[in-house]
Amino acid sequence: MLEFKNQLPFIENTSLQEVIKVCETPFYLYSQDKIIQKVEMTKKVLGENIFFSVKSNSNQAILKLMQSLNIGADVVSLGELKRSLSAGFDPSKIIFEGVGKSKDDLTFAIQKNIRLINTESLEEIKLLQSLALEQNKYVDIGVRLNPNIDGGTINKISTGKKTDKFGIEINEIENIINLMSDCKNLNLIGISCHIGSQISNINAYKNTFIEMKKSADKFSLSGINIKHVDLGGGFHVRYNKNDPEFKIENIKKELDDCFSKSNYELSFEPGRYLIAEAGILVTSIINTKQNGGINYLIVDAGMNTLVRPAMYNAYHEIEEITKKTDETMNYTVAGPICESSDIFVKNIHLTKQSIGDILIIKNTGAYGKVMSSTYNTRALPTEVLINGENFAIIYAPDKIEKNIEEDIIPSWL
Ligand code: LLP
Fold first, then answer.
1. Model's pTM, two decimal places?
2. Where in the chain is the domain with CATH 3.20.20.10?
3. Which residue's CA is the nearest one to ligand 1's atom 23?
């Protein structure tokens, strides 16, 4: 995404130096063009029924862009639902999932007439029925099924095994069918699943499609006509050159093999795949030091800015902007947070770096800013969107003083 023109870094036609002049590091920067290309390519292969997983990047500008590209939104909280409506998504293009939706969440979703509320337990179906009855409404719902498939991803982001907390086990379908006959205000028209994130194994997709097709047929045979089959997200992004190559076209092939003879409307909920590679995190070196023979570069982004390396051991490639010499050094890049896990990467080779130099942490468009925090009482990162030679700040964080003022000291102290 970053290109060098006369040794100066550019994103699209915008010079990174111009952005740095008006934006303090650390900040996230997204390429609008890259996002558009990825969305269009995904639609071309998988069809129009793409629902952007808002949890991966929920900035209003990003959502507005996604909405303008005619895709829907997949939300997992009342907050995300409100964000999506506020960015202009038509309620008929919003799917609401999530393993823990409260009464208030469901009531709001019913009132907004969204496309589908995907339920994740028999208890939730019963609650939804009572709320729909109370409001004298007929509500379209889906059920998220747990197909008991191991996507082969890391445990922290696996969701499709039967011991995971998500969805309703497939062998409960009979119970769902029986329950639905008591739920006169609910119209079960969809099934969905999501077996996890960062899944590259085509067999895992294939097995999921087979289970979902069997399940949809089972419902339909019982007289519950399933219209939508939502196959989740989870498409793999290549963070590391050693990562397996993942081609979305291979998914399409499995999809056709499994569903070509049926009339279900198929949909997907990708997040990471649409936006991870369109984002970078720009950070400055605030200190350099050598401890125990390790050359540390201490940068102003930390695990509070990008938690993925500390939380999942995730790898993000780091590139230098300043190349003063050809000679490289072995570095460990760490954040300023007072925790040993606040390390972005160990043992990378960069040309000699100094205090004030800029580093780029790549492929951070998804699960970056949305997972940031003010830990250690540090400000949240700014976000910038690039569009050709234009750029706009799309999130300007509060000053840290505001964060302090939000605490309330009780009268007895
Ligand atoms: N649909 C559902 C129901 C999900 O739970 C998720 C992600 C998605 C779709 C989108 O998955 P994607 O296409 O982005 O892989 N914070 C973690 C990722 C957690 C994903 C949770 N669910 C990370 O930084 O790797």
1. 0.96
2. 97-269
3. 367
